[in-house]
Amino acid sequence: MRMTRTVLPSLFAICALGYAASAAHAEEAQIDDRESRRAAILGEFDSDGDGRLSLEERGAARTAHREDRRQGVLDRFDADGDGQLTGDERTAAREGRAARRAENGGEGGGRGMPGGGRGGRRGGQRGFGQR
Question: What range does the domain containing 27 cover?
Fold first, then answer.
């Protein structure tokens, strides 16, 4: 009985420390990923080289992002390869998106939802040096 009183709290403490270390590492990796994406976007779309995206540069970045996402959907779901989604292909795309959201625990909702769109903020992304 005495061993149980000692071992269980110790095991709990070890698990808690492991979880905290894992969460800290995941957060650090997410920050690194965000910074590398920001650097890539600035490198590609900061045409005047001032380290900030103007309204025009942000518009170009958004347009390119939308086209990349559109092409990705076509690559995955355009079964007949005609460059357009039929009704059945659209249904498959919606089901695929719902399945991915379910796998992520509901993360990645639409605009204004946690993980989706603009992160629930109005006025677009911050941190890209809006003018």
Answer: 1-45
pTM above 0.85, yes or no: no
d(CA 5, CA 43) in angstroms, rounded, equals 57
Domain assignment of residue 116, yes or no:
no
Q: What CA–CA distance (Å, rounded) separates 64 from 66?
A: 5
Residue 130: how many other CB atoms lie within 10 Å: 13
- Average pLDDT for runs of 10 along the chain of length 131: 58 65 69 86 92 93 94 92 92 92 72 49 48 45
What token pair was written down for 105? 């625990």
| Joined tokens for residue 117 | 């769109």
The rounded distance, in Å, linking the Cα atoms of 78 and 87 is 11
Question: Is residue 38 domain-shared with residue 55, that is, in the same domain?
Answer: no
Cα–Cα distance for residue pair 64/101, rounded to 1 Å? 23
Phi then psi for residue 20, to 5 deg, are -65, -40
Domain count, the chain: 2
Whole-angstrom CA distances from 7 to 10, 65, 107, 127 are: 5, 53, 37, 47
